[in-house]
Amino acid sequence: MAIAVDILMAAFKRMNVNIPPARVKITPWADSYVRVLRNLGAALFSMTYTPKRLKLMTFMGPLVQSSVSIIALKRNKIVVKFVSALLRLIVGVMREDIGDQLVRKFAISDSFVIKTKLVKN
Q1: What is the rounded (10 degree) CA torsion for 78, 83, 84, 89?
Q2: Of 2, 19, 44, 102, whose CA is between 20 and 30 Å from 66?
Q3: Are 78 and 45 members of one domain?
Q4: Could you tell me if 12 and 43 lie in one domain?
Q5: Per residue in 75-89, pLDDT tens?
Q6: Residues 36, 79 within the same domain
Q7: Same domain (yes/no): 51, 6
């Protein structure tokens, strides 16, 4: 997350906008997403493009190239060739983030998904 804040601060500096990093509030993703949908004065940074989101929001960027993946430790030797193979796993996602949305898109039952919030250290 720190790189996103650094990029945001660099963009502000380049535009001669004086907003100190302390004014950037890092909140749980799902809360932030709802807040930006309801509040004309709110903005998000570091979000994955999706067709649904492109219909709702104006994007500036991309900041960085990214990919959405399901990962596991190599020593567990998990191989997934088909989405249906995910049903034998427990998948962790950040609540309402792109991974959560994609898991739901593939109709993986919530009983196989552990949802968490991003919390500040």
Answers
A1: 40
A2: 19
A3: no
A4: yes
A5: 989 888 887 777 777
A6: no
A7: yes
> What pLDDT is attached to residue 68?
77
Say if residue 14 is exposed, middle or buried (CB neighbours under 10 Å; 0-12, 13-18, 19+): exposed
Q: Exposed, middle or buried: residue 77 (CB in 10 Å: 0-12, 13-18, 19+)?
A: exposed
In a domain, 37, yes or no: yes
Sign of CA dihedral 44, 49, 55, 60: positive
Residues belonging to the chain = 121
Residue 50, in any domain of the structure: yes
How far is the CA of 35 from the CAs of 11, 20, 76, in angstroms? Answer: 22, 21, 39
For residues 52 and 83, membership in a common domain is answered with no
Sole residue written with tokens 């999706």: 50
Is a pLDDT exceeding 80 seen at residue 104? Answer: no
Residue 91: DSSP 8-state: E
pLDDT in tens, 3-37: 778 888 888 899 999 988 888 877 887 788 888 88
